[in-house]
Amino acid sequence: MKKKILMVLLAAAMAMSAGACGKEAQKDSSGGAQADGKQSTAEADKVDYQAEECVKLGDYLAMEISLPNDYKVTEEQIEDYANNMAQYSAQPSYKDTNKKKVEEGDIVNIDYEGKKDGMAFDGGTDTGFHLEIGSNTFIDGFEEGLIGKKVGQTVDLDLTFPENYQSAELAGQAVVFTVKINKIVKEDPDAKFELTDEYVKKNFNVDTVDDYKKQVKDYLEELNKNNKTTDTRQAVINKLQEVCEVNLPNELLEARTSDYVVQFTNNNCTDGTTLADYLSKNYNGMTEEDFRENITNEMRTSLTTELILEAIAKKEGIELDEDAFADYVKQQMEVYAYEKEEDFYKANGVDAAAGEAYERKVFVCNRALDKVVENAKVAYGVEPKEAE
């Protein structure tokens, strides 16, 4: 697949919905599919179930897990990351040539100052700038005006900014650039990059290399912290699937798959585009049949986890805290830039009611996962034992 179509997010949002095991109508702590008083049109929300009838729970509060990563930041990692990032941001190194006359394709080292009505304007002045003639880095006429000029020469270029220039103050305005041609250079492929105080001060807004490496260390530690959380929760989920038995009804799987296909179509197939056309164009010629098969396989894995966590929530008496849920929704809306709750919910279901039920399920199941993670015995920096 060109893009990943469905993903189970472990820390804050997992794909959750109603299902089918047993005939009794569901009355769970998530608030149900009609928490806002509106009827959901999602097929999965119409299926009655009891999660505990679908799942045989193992000893989920005494699981032993090992992860090979110790999530500690080493000096070697700091050095490697600091140098790689700095070199990525570095400008090419140049060496002088003996050329005296500027031609198309030359790289010239210049000082320049731009003036409008005799006054220098912001962003129009620089020294020691390397400009490749013909790169169209500057406005029309600038680079062409240097062709044929000699090293050491200073020229005045009477130019006009384009009407659609990004700065309203300069768009369409006549200006004069005074340019001194310092030398003609070429890239030096043999030059060795050196990380200096001057370089990090110019490129990373810090005073010294030590300050820069401290920033890198803080970043890597935060990255490792987040990875540790994500990896631990994934490992716990994997272990839950080992110690618990799930009887996943076909009715639930088919309904969830159908709902996702509808949601995917609503979100992506606009302006008369069909699902078949969209998949063919954006997923390397994928057919609707292949698409549905992929979704079904991912839904099977997702629903297995969901039903386990629902059953744990039921057994542990974990219920929806309305105030905490409201804070969660507010946070998610800020992260994904939604102004209205209805729009946020619509993005997570076939309609707003289904989306709200989904988010309530997400919240409760993640609280169940929190409890399992807190009780798991996790060894870091230890290779998992080979499966018997």
Describe what this molecule looks like in 3D.
The chain is an alpha+beta fold and 388 residues long. Helix content is 42%, strand content 15%. It has 10 helices and 9 strands. It is elongated and about 85 Å long.
Fold blueprint:
Layout: H1 51-54, E1 55-56, E2 64-67, H2 75-89, E3 94-96, E4 107-116, E5 119-132, E6 154-160, E7 174-187, H3 197-204, H4 209-243, E8 245-246, H5 250-268, H6 275-282, H7 288-316, H8 322-335, H9 341-346, H10 352-375, E9 377-380
Parallel strand pairs: 2-9
Antiparallel strand pairs: 1-8, 3-7, 4-5, 4-7, 6-7
Helix pairs in contact: 2-4, 4-10, 5-7, 7-10
Count the beta strands. Answer: 9
Overall pLDDT score: 88
Residue fraction in strands: 15-25%
The number of distinct helices, counting runs of at least 4 residues, comes to 10
CA gyration radius, whole angstroms: 30 Å
Structural class: alpha+beta
- Unreliable parts: 1-20, 22-36
| Percentage of residues assigned to helices | 40-55%
